[in-house]
Write a structure and sequence with these properties.
Elements: H1 3-13, H2 28-38, E1 43-51, E2 57-64, H3 67-79, E3 83-93, E4 97-105
Antiparallel strand pairs: 1-2, 2-4, 3-4
Amino acid sequence: MPRPRAEALAARARGEAPGLLSAADALPAQIVAGLASALPGDARLERLSIDYARGGTLEMHVVARDAAAWDRLIAQLERSPEFRDVAPGPETRDAEVRSAIRARWAGRAP
């Protein structure tokens, strides 16, 4: 194995790799609490994935009652200091708005 690759793998194993977020820095309970504070009453989280290897990248599957609730949800996530790089994905708009949102966990606000 080339030396730089071996060094990168060793750093990652020690939790020192750039972009690697430890579970202690992003406890699922902290992330869910942050999301709960950002979710308007007329939107709900259906599924959450946390990718620690990609720096705490979150994928949230959400449902909002209507377009106004969807807009509030996106605005609140973007304003929250706990989330960054908020990127709404494709959405379906039947009676409700359903979509996946990607964001990165920035940590609990002090």
